[in-house]
Amino acid sequence: MSGCDLEGLRVLAGLYRRQKYHLVGAHSAVKRCRWLYESLVHGRACYKEKFYGVRSHCCVQMTPVLYYCSMQCLFCWRIQAKDVNSEFVSPKLPDRWDLPEEIVEGTIREQFRLLSGYKGNLKVDKQRLKEAYQPRHAAISLAGEPTLYPYLDGLISEYHRRRFTTFLVTNGTNPEVLAKLGEEPTQLYVSLYAVDKEMLSRLCRPRSSKAWERIMETLELISSFSCPTVIRITLVRDFNMNSIEGFAKLIEKVWPTYVEPKAYMHVGYSRKRLGFHNMPTHVEVRRFARGLAEKLNYNVLDESKESRVVLLSRLDKPVKLA
Questions:
Q1: Which CA distances in Å does 32 have to 180, 199, 265, 305?
Q2: What pLDDT was estimated at residue 34?
């Protein structure tokens, strides 16, 4: 790594800690999801609980690649190196990676640490807190691109060995990793942000000139998975919301179990790159979703107004994974 890389890494690590990320080993992390708090204190659930039955207070939001991503999406709420200093670049991938069992142990340990602060909160539902200390879901989605972790297969297997369900969220830029998975996640999310190479470049700033072609390879792989699959579209006003026809043409070749059109949310570090006007309303998301469902002949199964997301499916009802 260059000195600039190392300095950027140190600065990023400090910022992550101040934002209450719990760092695990050299490159992994856990962070309290807003919905864990909502579930424990107010009995309110994330849309993934509403859609798929995954209980919010029993979910570990983690990443094995905190500092590493293959794209620099404008709408990403996470910290990017250039948000800190225009001269910084994301650090190069490490020469040595932590092992899956080390990461899983560390994420569970840090989940317990962040839960410890709720013990004295009189508003917390004690039964839910007890359940939270027996986590059963791992969302491999917190930050970075998880397919960059070379032992992803082992990470999924290690969580499954502990009777977790796993949600793997990928931007699709590493199709060869997905093709070689020996053990599938419980559910696979593939994020699709654009309908062509130009839109992808403008919105997501991929690091590879072949990113679009690689995403197309990933889409071709989706039908080979036996687990439920999701195409998630992050909708950003002025960028991709007038492309229903283009998204439909891509998705109809894939036939995923679900499609989740979801609004970009004007939060976190995305506010350095986009304006409030780029965040669509739920009415706009619903309109987009219904138009897409009509073209795909998918069912509109559910929605979450607060999260500004709509669930489309080729099924009549969602598969409950928990």
A1: 31, 32, 18, 22
A2: 86
Spell out the domain ranges in the chain. 3-313
pTM given for the model: 0.91
Contact 225, 209 (CB under 8 A): no
For the record, the structure tokens of 193 come out as: 């942000």
CA atoms of 72 and 204, how far apart (whole Å):
5
Query: Quick check: 191 and 211 in contact, CB under 8 A?
Result: no
Rounded to whole angstroms, the Cα distance separating 199 from 197 reads 6
From CA 64, how far away is CA 81, in angstroms rounded?
Answer: 18
Which residues lie across from 38 on neighbouring strands? none
Q: How far apart are the first and last CA of the chain?
A: 42
Q: Are residues 314 and 298 in contact, defined by beta-carbon separation less than 8 angstroms?
A: yes
Query: For the segment 251-276, what is each residue's pLDDT rounded down to a tens digit?
Result: 998 999 999 999 999 998 899 999 99
* Residues pairing with 188 in the sheet: 168, 229
What pLDDT, on a 0 to 100 scale, did the predictor assign at position 2?
46
Assigned fold of 3-313? TIM Barrel (3.20.20)
Other CB atoms within 10 A of residue 263 CB? 23
Name the E strands within 54-164: 59-63, 137-140
Can you say whether the dihedral through the CA atoms of 231, 235, 240, 241 is positive or negative?
Answer: positive
Say if CB 250 and CB 221 are below 8 A apart.
no
* Total number of residues shown for the chain: 322
Counting as low any pLDDT under 50, the low residues of the chain are 1-4
Q: Which two tokens stand for residue 22?
A: 């719990």
Q: Which residues, in sequence order, are bridge partners of residue 147?
A: none
Q: What is the pLDDT of residue 86?
A: 58
Q: What is the sign, positive or negative, of the torsion defined by CA atoms of 293, 299, 304, 305?
A: positive
277: buried, middle or exposed (CB in 10 Å: 19+, 13-18, 0-12)? exposed
